[in-house]
Amino acid sequence: MYALLVAAILAIAPAASPSPAAMPGFVVHIKDFKYAPTPLKIHVGDTVRFINDDDEPHTVTATDKSFDSEALDTSGAWTHTFTKAGTYSYFCELHPYMKATVIVTGDDAGGPRRSVGAGAWSATHPATWGAL
Length: 132
Prior knowledge:
Elements: H1 2-12, E1 26-31, E2 34-36, E3 40-43, E4 47-52, E5 61-62, E6 77-81, E7 86-91, E8 99-105
Parallel strand pairs: 1-4, 3-8
Antiparallel strand pairs: 1-2, 4-6, 5-7, 7-8
């Protein structure tokens, strides 16, 4: 009987949420045909989540083609981990006038490292609530 009770509890228990280290620490919102924030300043190894809050599809495409989200529909999201220091310019292939920048510094540069950075949480977008 005890084993059955434990099995029943485990069956209805919520799945474990991802560890904070596995969650993106930074979020860029795409709204009103703009990326925000820009420029976004992060460190090598940080992951950025791009969320399309617009009614139109958009892409997140590096000018040098080093990364590309392909088209993100409304509420669509895409993540990218930046593994090298540098300045990354990106744009929307569907709307080329939409441009933004991510500045990636080495682990020692750019001031103190924060576990959750600017733009990491949005009160209006549930997809970012896990970053709390």
